[in-house]
């Protein structure tokens, strides 16, 4: 580097604030006044506190800070204007007291997934998938969608690495170069992690049935399979499990579950004998006045969830996460038994709104919209090369603005528009491929 580090950092900070100014209105108001909403939340690693900031504050207030985008978090109020963060908010000038009703899960400590790993954009190669319910992020390998790939090796030559700061690691899509995962993002609409499945009796009941895929590895099967109750393979697997359960084989699953049930006799799940695991239509019709239209339970999926309750680390048969296919919200049975647990989590019945900054009414093809869509126009609740995207974008904006700063030129609207049009083409390309399954 020719420029000294302080000069470089100063120039970088200036570039980012120029980027912010060049996009009128885009980052001009903090969402604090909107209260608790579902919105893209950013974790500031430089401020180093388990708090979250809104997209405007991420650009306008914490410009020169290192950040990770946590993507949408529901019921979240921006912490930037509160005294929980010492760094002052530049958009909302009254200092407010700490937010008490925000929930700060492990993501706010930079920790993700049930494996509890921190996220490192430079070495991580896997796509991560967000749980619709808890909104934590999961590695594909932790969901049994693929083997855990080796991390990107650190650059062998430190001098070389210094010359190209993070360029390679950060700009590549995280799963690029890897074989496709067992379930691709086109095949499902939302993933719900097994902790969230276990907490909701209706979700639990649906697991592994049609449109609610589970990844399983039944005993004696070679590798992981998708089970959704409808495929021939799924049916065969379930039958095999039932047979095994009925046979009294000492190594069978029933045995595992039964021995566990001694420790947890109160569990209602254990009362069901193996032969009754598959509900008959007659049984199904008994819930309340309206007939229950829930599909018969998938015995393999239920066995896996039983095992997970007893030992969440036992991943032998499957981890119990469920991938719901397109239109799952319309398919629920709404009988007296099935509906209340769904109503307790309204996003299971109706797709919720995620805040997007308002469109600038003055500009025809709103620059703000282009900018925000480029920055945030990523699919929610599904596989995205998520957390990387923000850093990529920031890097690209910097690279785009650098020559202007070096030559002392003013960045014009046309320049910015050109930049985002290029980005939008790439995004639309991705969007198109995503919409193929819609
Ligand atoms: Zn804010
Ligand atoms: Zn900060
Ligand atoms: Zn702020
Ligand atoms: Zn993980
Ligand atoms: Zn979850
Ligand atoms: Zn029902």
TrEMBL record:
Record's keyword terms, sorted: Metal-binding, Zinc, Zinc-finger
Record keyword Protease present: no
Record-linked PROSITE patterns: ZF_UBR
InterPro entries: UBR7 (IPR040204), UBR7-like_UBR-box (IPR047506), Znf_FYVE_PHD (IPR011011), Znf_PHD (IPR001965), Znf_PHD-finger (IPR019787), Znf_RING/FYVE/PHD (IPR013083), Znf_UBR (IPR003126)
Superkingdom of source: Eukaryota
Biased composition (Polar residues): 244-254
GO cellular component annotations of the record: cytoplasm
Boundaries of every UBR-type domain copy: 28-94
One MF annotation (Gene Ontology) recorded for this entry: zinc ion binding
Entries under Pfam families matching the protein: PHD
Region described as Disordered: spans on this chain: 149-182, 242-292
Cited SUPFAM superfamilies: FYVE/PHD zinc finger (SSF57903)
Zinc finger (UBR-type): 28-94
Name assigned to this protein: UBR-type domain-containing protein
Organism of origin: Schizopora paradoxa
